[in-house]
Amino acid sequence: MSKQIKALILLFIFMLTSLGTWTAAAAKPAYSKTLEQIYHSKEVYRDTETRLSELNKNYSNITYLFIIGKSVQNRNLTVIKVGSGPKKIFINASHHPREYMGTILALNQIQYILEAYSANRTLDGYSIKKLLDKEVSFYFMPLVNPNGVQICVNGAPSYYFNANKVDLNHNYDALWQKEITDTYSTGPKAFSEPETQAVKALCENVEFDLTIAYHAAGDIIYWYFGQEGADRQRDLAYANMLKSLTGYSLVSPANYKSSTSGFKDWCVMKLKIPSFTIEIGGKRGLYKPVEWSWYNSVWQKNQLVPIRTAKQLLKQTRFQGDKKTALIFNKSLVVLSQNIISENGKSYISAEDAQNLGYARLSRAAQEQLDASQATIKNIPCIPLASFAEHLGLDCRYEKAVNTYYID
Asked: Is pTM beyond 0.85 here?
């Protein structure tokens, strides 16, 4: 073979290699800020919303971004759904503002899972494509308390409450007690705050199989709130798995009533599902945010928490089962007065709920057509959901795996 031919072959191979490298680089998702920049930002809420939108855009084939409510100061309470499997896991962070490193961790976990899915990689020895396509849906809410976090990063680093100065993680209906002083409040009643009301609505409508709430600090895991028998053994098995993975200590079940009305407490007591509070950052976040220099340690211990938890959930044999059909309308969760009803192969929404969703804005002709298709089911006047969406000029689709309708 002549030197010229060899040179041409080598050049051709180099061009192919370079093209592949360029294509991979070009395809790599871009983000407007790094996680460290978000952590140090004075606009953590805005930058978190931007990152969630970017993740949703970059991986739109497996994500869905929606709003579950508004905060006291009218900021969005945003959730990103990752996956399309029937088992449902809810992971949230930043009930308490100075603990917002959990927000960064949740964003990182989302990105880590989605990048593995896109590259068809395994994590923890498990196919992420199989996990998200067929087995599990994750719902991440990185910022439960956006107002409080904004207060925290703009001059009040020890801030612990929402904009109403209520401790959100003592505002859930699980042995709630009213406690209002000059410096502390559990609220005038359980679920008095729009943030906890929104989380409650999400949990009751989507009906999760397991939940995790990230807090700081202590490197400890809360798992118990009075569950006994098989439920206790089930939840202890999850807790021991999380202990082994993170190296964190389990909080003793003794005297569990000394701290009540938290999100985890409500999930265990009222929803009867496994639920865990994971406290990150050692003792560094007790009075102010955990320093960024500590983040790599937090990440190394928690990066596999969603995946390892999902793997164990797939082994669980007893579940509560879905009782409600969720509705997400124009990218917002809707709390319906009546559950969506299926009858003769069609799904119906109550006429009252249709009114609340825009029936009155339809033309007279459209209203007459819907009225003609109205049915009375269980003594409730109802109209076909798909027809209602069509007259509104919106698409209607049903995701059977998670028992949810989307009208966009």
From this structure: yes
